[in-house]
């Protein structure tokens, strides 16, 4: 184990000379680079550097077409180079004002990215520069020896790969999720050298050929199993069939091996679950000559090897297990190490007790790092909050000042308890404590928010360390929290339009849009105006927002979206004492269109609720009669599917109330724009909803 590791910070050095086994080099957030080999199952250190700034990336380099055995690390805004023996030969302080987030090396070319800035250096001299429209997560360059030109590719948060030529954008490639990692197909870009594999934060994989003029998508794998986001990819022939497999590491600890049985799409062949996110993955020969391994590094710094070596265990039913000499010596050395560590802990604890009771005592708060991710899931319109701590979590307290639902997560083994809270004076709507089982370092929660109600969700994370310490992390629930950025929208739908005019700058209106909607880059876009498209993940309605200095135009087929934007934007402008001229154009047809979108969901949820209410009575009948053949087929099928129905109902506790709430808001908002208050008619609307009649509902909306 080393310190906490960032994404892409572990590599295998190429095998040298007669020795076929490879050395491992890893950089951690304490700034330490550790290089070691494995001999008889034990780690043998080669070198270890002194601590410093945290290492964000570690890459191997060297002259083109020679073994890539020089080690380069990015720390802060500096790049350092080390030989395979650990001698530093390069310290290059870049002119970047921010810390380096991503790095790629090809011969004498160095490609670096901070949050929004890309820089290309050749022999440490500045060559090209590009400012991206959204955050850059990874960078790659197509192999120069194959494509005969320098073609950098940036993976950007707005679901786009940006392909550059010099300092200019050549073209953009739309991908199905925010790309988090890029890798050359087969490690070399395939036969053409133009093939790039990407992984997204919502767990999708794909291959795209980046030609000189346009992208050619080859294949794409969705995330049907609802696994974590992809953090690292490598190509290596682990199955020994002469074709390189794709090795994938995810942020929920799942390690996957895909192979190409047919030449087309990869097929998942193996998977293995580790307990924390996998930050780097490599294929090679590490532990024993002749046996290939997959090596993974995890967030808290564990390095784990999965080997192809057969593990023989002798012994049968009555026999004692015969442990090899090697195994016995390993166990005894582990016992000694354990005793030594226990002694050390006791000594340090005594030392701490003495120092804390002395007159010059200073309270020391132990530092610990938390890796967190708060993202909107398109499939079920809920937010996932993933908290990962370098040591075991004791408990997490979740507090929210807006009404939200906590949803069930299958992978979550923590015990949750709710505390009653008073929503009136201190606007406290949720207080829940998750008590974790021993050795839990990763906790996943799911919440669903209500659009129009915005505020802050806070997580108080307490790990199992002494003295007790807690870190608070805050997450913004935005007014249009269930909207997700999309590449395009359907322009044929009936839309309502909201137009704002006033004495505001481009930066000011952009900051209001950032406040209202998720997935909008915080940095003001380049140029004079910008258009963003969004889709509501719960209902499937859409929003188009176009704005510039002094003017903003928002179009949506959902009148409630326009109503929320009108309220929030006018409130934000009032705060800054800016006078807004607001005009709106309401399309009556859009209300009918939105109701038609909601109705199938409403019908499904009402039917589910009815079936669930019948289960207990039907089960009682089954017990009394002993036989249910006399029941109608529809009731028999409810009994047969009872467990699945209950499971689904439990997973989405307040789904029906949410839909009722949205239809009620739609009703109130429709008449609000006419200047009529219809709140007294809401009980009548709820009665019609219980009847589940689409035509009756539309008629009520039109005649009320």
UniProtKB/TrEMBL annotation:
Residue ranges of coiled coil: 324-351
Domain BBS7 platform: 483-585
Any Pfam family the entry gives: BBS7_GAE
Any single GO CC term annotated in Swiss-Prot or TrEMBL for this entry: neuron projection
Keywords recorded for this protein, A-Z: Coiled coil
GO biological process, one term: non-motile cilium assembly
InterPro entries: Bardet-Biedl_syndrome_7_prot, BBS7_GAE_dom, BBS7_hairpin, BBS7_pf_dom, Beta-prop_BBS7, WD40_repeat_dom_sf
Domain annotation BBS7 GAE: ranges: 366-475
Entry keyword Protein biosynthesis: no
Protein name: Bardet-Biedl syndrome 7 protein
Organism listed in the record: Opisthocomus hoazin (Hoatzin)
């Amino acid at each position: 184990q080393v310190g906490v590791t960032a994404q892409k910070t572990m590599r295998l050095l190429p095998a040298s000379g007669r020795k076929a086994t490879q050395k491992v080099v890893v950089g951690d957030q304490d700034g330490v680079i550790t290089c070691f080999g494995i001999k008889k199952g034990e780690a043998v250190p080669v070198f270890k550097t002194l601590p410093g700034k945290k290492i964000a990336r570690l890459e191997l380099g060297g002259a083109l077409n020679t073994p890539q055995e020089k080690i380069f690390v990015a720390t802060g805004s500096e790049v350092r180079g080390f030989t395979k023996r650990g001698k530093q030969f390069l310290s290059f302080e870049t002119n970047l004002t921010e810390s380096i987030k991503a790095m790629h090396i090809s011969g004498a070319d160095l490609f670096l990215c901070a949050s929004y800035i890309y820089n290309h250096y050749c022999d440490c001299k500045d060559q090209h520069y590009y400012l991206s429209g959204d955050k850059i997560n990874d960078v790659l360059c197509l192999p120069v020896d194959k494509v005969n030109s320098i073609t950098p590719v940036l993976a950007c948060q707005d679901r786009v790969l940006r392909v550059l030529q010099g300092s200019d954008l050549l073209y953009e490639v739309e991908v199905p999720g925010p790309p988090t990692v890029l890798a050359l197909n087969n490690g070399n870009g395939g036969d053409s050298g133009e093939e790039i594999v990407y992984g997204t934060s919502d767990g999708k994989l794909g291959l795209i050929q980046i030609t000189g003029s346009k992208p050619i998508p080859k294949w794409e794998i969705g995330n049907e199993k609802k696994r974590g986001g992809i953090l690292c990819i490598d190509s290596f022939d682990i199955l020994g069939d002469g074709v390189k497999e794709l090795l994938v590491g995810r942020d929920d600890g799942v390690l996957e091996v895909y192979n190409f049985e047919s030449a087309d799409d990869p097929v998942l062949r193996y998977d293995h679950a580790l307990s924390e996110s996998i930050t780097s993955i490599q294929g090679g020969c590490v532990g024993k000559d002749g046996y290939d391994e997959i090596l993974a590094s995890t967030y808290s710094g564990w390095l784990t090897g999965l080997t192809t070596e057969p593990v023989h265990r002798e012994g049968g039913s009555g026999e004692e297990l015969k442990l090899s000499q090697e195994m016995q010596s390993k166990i005894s050395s582990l016992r000694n190490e354990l005793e030594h560590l226990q002694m050390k802990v006791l000594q340090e604890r005594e030392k701490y007790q003495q120092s804390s009771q002395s007159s010059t005592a200073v309270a020391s708060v132990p530092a610990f790092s938390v890796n967190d991710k708060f993202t909107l899931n398109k499939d079920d319109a809920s937010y996932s909050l993933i908290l990962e701590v370098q040591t075991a979590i004791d408990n997490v307290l979740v507090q929210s000042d807006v009404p939200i639902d906590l949803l069930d997560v299958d992978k979550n083994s923590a015990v949750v308890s709710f505390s009653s809270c008073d929503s009136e004076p201190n606007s406290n709507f949720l207080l829940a404590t998750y008590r974790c089982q021993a050795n839990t370092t990763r906790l996943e929660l799911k919440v669903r928010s209500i659009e129009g109600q915005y505020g802050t969700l806070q997580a108080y994370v307490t790990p199992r360390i002494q003295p007790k310490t807690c870190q608070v992390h805050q997450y913004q629930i935005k007014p249009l929290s269930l909207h997700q950025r999309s590449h395009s929208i359907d322009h044929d739908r009936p839309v309502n339009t909201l137009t704002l005019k006033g004495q505001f700058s481009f930066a000011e209106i952009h900051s209001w849009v950032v406040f209202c909607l998720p997935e909008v880059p915080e940095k003001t876009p380049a140029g004079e105006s910008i258009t963003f498209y969004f889709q509501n993940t719960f209902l499937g309605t859409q929003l188009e927002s176009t704005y510039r200095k002094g003017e903003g135009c928002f179009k949506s087929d959902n009148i409630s979206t326009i109503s929320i934007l009108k309220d929030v934007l006018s409130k934000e402008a009032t705060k800054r004492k800016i006078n807004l001229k607001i005009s709106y154009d309401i399309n009556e047809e859009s209300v009918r269109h939105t109701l038609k979108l909601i109705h199938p969901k409403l019908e499904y949820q009402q039917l589910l609720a009815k079936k669930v209410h019948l289960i207990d009575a039907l089960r009682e009948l089954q017990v009394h009669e002993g036989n249910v053949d006399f029941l109608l087929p529809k009731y028999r099928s409810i009994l047969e599917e009872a467990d699945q129905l209950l499971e689904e109902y439990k997973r989405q506790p307040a789904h029906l109330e949410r839909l009722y709430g949205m239809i009620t808001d739609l009703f109130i908002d429709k008449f609000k724009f006419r200047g009529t208050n219809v709140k007294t008619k809401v009980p009548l609307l709820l009665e019609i909803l219980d009847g589940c009649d689409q035509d009756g509902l539309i008629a009520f909306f039109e005649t009320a």
